[in-house]
Amino acid sequence: MASKKIELDHKDMVHDSAIDYYGKRLATASSDFTVKIVSIGAATAPSQVLATLTGHYGPVWRVAWAHPKFGTLLASCSYDGRVIIWKEDAHGHWSQAHVFADHKSSVNSIAWAPYEVGLSLACASSDGRISVITMQADGGWDTATIERAHPVGATAISWAPATALGSLSGSGELVYKLVSGGFDAVAKVWGFDNGSWKLESTLISDMHTDCVRDVAWAPVLGLAKSTIASASQDGKFIIWTKGKDGDKWEGKLMRDFGSPVWRVSWSLTGNILSVAAGENNITLWKEGSDGQWEEVMKVEP
User: Fold this and answer.
1) What is the Cα–Cα distance from 69 to 246, expressed in whole angstroms?
2) pLDDT for residue 270
3) One-character DSSP codes across the chain
């Protein structure tokens, strides 16, 4: 299969990209203060920039598509401390549906909640706080804040799957949990309880010795354990697992790449993890039947 080149026309470095639910469009975030929406349809059709979204006053770090059941919504976060939720109308025009400007410094990471729990976006900021903004039935937005989540700055955020361990989808109670990472080299697990977010576990390890660049909670799919991957500036990535409630999280160092690990991302089935480190170093990892993780592929640039 021939690879396809996509011209983005950004004037500066691209920090993030996200493909929409249907695999038809790509959103990109850049240091040129813009977000672009690009068509990535048929292999033969040339890709084209469908929209350039302006409204940030600093580099845009991340973009994230909401589930299509809520319409066509895209969130972006920036060094300017703002989070913008963009909405596309039936004619393909984009507008700012909501601007969230409570943070005092760079918003480094954003993540939409599993659609089952509603339209909620978690935001991690250099001001040390984590915010969760939720759309209400009347179209307004509610904000819940975790103060001093990572006092020296929060860098990464990810939601737990909405279904409880061992339960079939659509049965049982919904799970409201987050994992965050910070400049403090620590990952933390938060649970929503009695109307507020509370710290459940601090995933302390002498394994991470520098900023946690990314965290990713794996989809559960009826497995008997929860799994989180964390990636750090120190070159290491760790897989954390926890059995039933009451068990402790256990961390296992997978590899030291010797250069920063930028991103960790799970496949939809939760059994393959992609790890991006250093300059163009992308590896795929899979858990064997014996519970051991191994590298199964290296992606050559």
Assistant:
1) 35
2) 81
3) ----------SS-EEEEEE-TTSSEEEEEETTS-EEEEE--SSSSPP-EEEEE---SS-EEEEEEPPGGG-SEEEEEETTS-EEEEEE-TTS-EEEEEEE---SS-EEEEEEPPGGG-SEEEEEETTS-EEEEEE-TTS-EEEEEETTSSTT-EEEEEEPPSBPTTPPTTSSPBP-EEEEEETTS-EEEEEEETTEEEEEEEE--SS--S-EEEEEEPP-TT-SSEEEEEEETTSEEEEEEE-STTPPPEEEEEEE-SS-EEEEEE-TTSSEEEEEETTTEEEEEEE-TTS-EEEEEEE--
pLDDT, tens digit, for every residue of 35-55?
A: 999 998 766 677 889 999 999
Q: In degrees, to the nearest 5, what angle opens at C-alpha 206 toward C-alphas 205 and 212?
A: 65
Task: For residue range 72-83, list pLDDT tens digits in order.
Answer: 999 999 999 999
Query: Which one-letter amino acid corresponds to residue 107?
Result: V
Question: Tokens representing 60?
Answer: 């845009």
Cα–Cα distance for residue pair 251/241, rounded to 1 Å: 7
How buried is residue 52: exposed, middle or buried, by Cβ count under 10 Å (0-12/13-18/19+)?
A: middle
d(CA 8, CA 26): 10
**Bridge partners, 236 (sequence order):** 256
Q: What is the pLDDT of residue 42?
A: 66
Pair of tokens at residue 285? 């990892």
Tokens of 301: 């640039």
> What one-letter code names the amino acid at 123?
C
Contact 64, 110 (CB under 8 A): yes
Instruction: Please state the pTM of the whole predicted model.
Output: 0.93
Written as six digits, the tokens of 203 are 């995933």
**pLDDT greater than 70 at residue 245:** yes
Q: What is the mean pLDDT of the chain?
A: 90
270 and 220 Cβ atoms separated by less than 8 Å: yes
